[in-house]
Amino acid sequence: MTQSNRIAGGQIDRTRTLSFTFDGVAYRGHPGDTLASALLANGVRLMGRSFKYHRPRGPISAGSEEPNALVELREGARREPNTRATVAELFDGLSADSQNRWPSLSFDAMSIKDRLSSFLTAGFYDTTFRWPASFWEKVYEPIIRKAAGLGAMSRLEDPDQYDKGFLHCDLLIIGAGPAGLAAALSAGRAGAQVILADEDFRMGGRLNAETHEVGGMTGAGWAVQAVSELSHMPNVRLMPRTTIIAAVDHGIYGAVERVSDHLAVPAPGKPRQILWRIYSRRAILAGGATERPIAFENNDRPGIMLAGALRAYANRWGVAVGRRAAIFTNNDDGLRTAADLKAKGVEVRVIDVRKGEEVVDSSGRLGLKSVTIRSGGRLETFPCEALGVSGGWNPNVNVASHHRGRPVWEPAIEAFVPGQGDIPGLAAAGAAAGRFSTRAALETGAAAAEEALSDLGLAVPARDLPQAEDGAYAIEPKWYVAGGKGRAWIDQQNDVTLKDVKLAHQENYTSVEHLKRYTTLGMATDQGKTANVLGLAVMAGLTGKSIPETGTTIYRPPYTPVAMGTLAGRSRGQEFKPKRLTPSHHWASEQGAVFVEVGMWLRAQWLPRPGETTWRESVDREVLQTRRSVGICDVTTLGKIDIQGRDAAAFLDKVYANNFASLAVGKCRYGLMLREDGIVYDDGTTARLGEHEYVMTTTTANAVLVFRNLEYARQCLYPDMDVQLISTTEAWAQFSVAGPNARRLLQKIVDQDISDAALPYMGCKEITVCGGLRARIFRISFSGELAYEIAVPTRYGDALIREMVAQGAEFDAVVYGTEALGVMRVEKGHVAGNELNGQSSALNMGLGKMVSRKKDSIGMVLSQREGMTDPDGYRLVGVKPVNSAEKLTAGSHFLDKGAAPVMANDLGWLTSVVYSPHLGSSIALGYLKKGDERRGARLRSVNLLAKTEVEVEIVSPHFFDPEGERLRG
Amino acid sequence: MAEHRLKPLTPLGHDRPETVSIGPVTLTEVVDQALASLAARQGREEEVAQKAKAAGIPLPAAARAEPGTPYGAFWLSEQSWMVEAPYASHEDIRAILLPLFGDAASITEQTDAWVRFDVSGSDLSAMFERLCNVDLRAAPDNLATRTVIEHMGCYLVRRARDRLSVFGARSSAAALWHALETAAHSAY
Q1: pLDDT range class, residue B12, cuts 50, 70, 90
Q2: Are the Cβ atoms of A771 and B4 closer than 8 angstroms?
Q3: Average pLDDT for residues A101-130, to the nearest whole number?
């Protein structure tokens, strides 16, 4: 195809030609083109079908406000639906397809809906598809979704990468038009740290689309010169292709930088987009204005555009959308388009509202062929391929309203402007502030920068602005053309018509928020940038209220659509969160261990041996071998907190419910930690290593929480206590060595005597291992066996487990994972995460006596509340099936025999269930009402979800070695 | 130090530390450094300052680092610092520091709690602005600050305009290394 509508001029590089396809047809364009400008240059006006009625549509704008020209860009996994052709930068090999049509864009079978439009008014779906309710999800919604809608997802994983980052500046300038450039020059020359961001790939804003001179040169030429000066300032960061999407709190702005969207494929290792968080001390909104249409019958045909867009295509991209054009305007700016087009040889007819003229209809099935004009009571038809419509300009107040501030109506320009001070530190300038002439933009931009500079205590340079036009902006309000029988479109993206707004009024949905939800006006990808003010002006007319009384809907981020991948950044797949590896990880990987995620840690869950086909075989072996001889388990993941200071003992007495002041040096003690409301939240062992030195262990899951709570207690609750805390979780590789042969194995490793006399139960000491490496040993047990925990500096953890495995060979030592650990702790009746469930007290756990009432500790008082001490409350019990062949299911509830499975009869539930290879049956821990009085009772364990029911016997939670003889051995 | 038969692994799990160059930056895993936290006990702040001075241990101001031989240090929090020394001479760093401070300070061995990656090269801010919320362009050359990189709590210690150390939890060394490499590839 030839570029039949390409005319002279514009800021495109005609020395290079780019090839691209649209719906499979090959076209050519130039660097500097957007997909929309290149298609228009090739005579293609039809670019899409509308959302609801499948009306043929072309672009109405030349920017990010575009509601119509939405395409699927690229192919395969990189295909992206709903991309605005008006901002998609052309590159060689680009492929795009139209969407929401079948079988083709020019013949769309679903356009039958357009014929049925009188039935499909606002509210149609809500009111029609209500019955039967069960049909909605399975029948109605899929059909409606298929018929309506936008582009389709590729359903393939996005192959690109997205970064997130942080930037800091004195002054963020949003928009690089005349106001933004003037502001950046002032602030940059003053030495401030400046970020100048613009969503366009070419800085200059409207200067690129106008023919006015600035400083004796073209506006675009002046913009190039200004950008060049700024690019040489080390304190100025120019960010083209960057949209400020949100104003957050405290001077923080969200920005999306499209790093690689103008390339066929991102360079290796480079992100496609970056989501920046910009910390600014001051900000200037210089984001320009968006033109608004005037609604009239059939005002949505391809070729009908906003007048400023028609002018931009001619001036910036060298494109005449048609050789004959009409301009329908209610203000002087529309006349500019007429003048510029005439100067480029286009035949132009002006229809000026202010002279009593109006466009009342149009014709052309797939593109504009003519408009019908009413002038002085006469109707006439003017054949043309393009119509530029200007109903005035709306300042882009969006970002300035992200803190829910409402914009202010400015009667002189018949538009809303940003409210003053809605966002602290943000000022608007140029067209965004309703100052539309180039001169006013330059001046307000410079003035905003000067104000920011003086606020920040920086020297304000002398103002040096170029000469520029300062034309008046004479506007007479005109929102729609009355009297048409057909449909006049207000929101083209959502197919909302004048009649829909009238219907909303009839149905009493007169609030703008109700209007939005009833008609969908202002929803979807363009968020009503060209439609909102028009819609609410129509509603204002219907209700007899003024426009400011009618008000706007809330402006919310993001300013333009953001891909989900950009929000996710690097946090996906294996990079979703960092992994923490234990010191024995490499060794365990070599053994083929199966790992489980515990928070960010990867822990060996079990270590299968050749021939084992199920996890149970591996776990049973690990348990039996440990209880028979000796087992080794990496317990580095338990939180370790070093606690020192003169008041360390008193501090422990505060944070633990049980007594710690009496703990002797060289001894360990099990401790319970309560929340302030008296509920148990963590447990662990604390060892006293010296007079004023302790090391506390926490559960793996709560390591960070406990540390944070301890810091809070130290800094805020007990600031007078002399206590210092630091985490040492990572500093020591720690292994549990458990089983009857634990001591014999360790004695081959440890250089000192660890006999029962030298290191009794619950003792701890600093030792050396393997010929002199400093280490710590604690004689504590979670498994109920004779057990120790041994710790060495982490870099030696890998060597230590290899050494222990080698030295343990003579005892048939085994390394066990978290699953076997869980089995052994249930066999011993120790509580863990399932029992520390955030709703259970020490009394519930059978540990009520541990909460000392002789001292004050966090949670002690509230643990004595009524209800917490209920003698009929839950108590931890052991559970086993009457028929040992039957399996228990965690989460099952206890019921009396014959009791119906309803809440009123509920007696409690099973918290932890394991298979005990030692007992040869399924066993469990559970919370049972009056559990301590029900030993020996037989109950039903019922699980309505798993549809299981097992007769169980209530027993002591200590299934194995209840007297604890083994661990003292 | 005593001879023993155990062989250490680097935080990245190898015999020798890693190093890689990406564009203008070089990432290096540093293992020849011993660390201990030093916190003054209540009411003993002045005494700790004097003893540190006598021992040649710098106690830099908030958010600052100070180099030295054999001791350098960076600030952690109010009256609390991380003391750095060569591993070869100070492997058991706590045992060496304890006699210098007696019971005036709480001292905890931190050597293997951390992985240290040094990053050197021009324009480090281009890489670190994609990693953390630290404004390296405005930061002084001896900055020491706590920050978060890809969910991982880290200390950033700037050694010179073109060189800094990232301290992260040793267990997530591989994840942190990956984050640094990825950011370098992205930035340069």
Answers
A1: very high
A2: yes
A3: 78
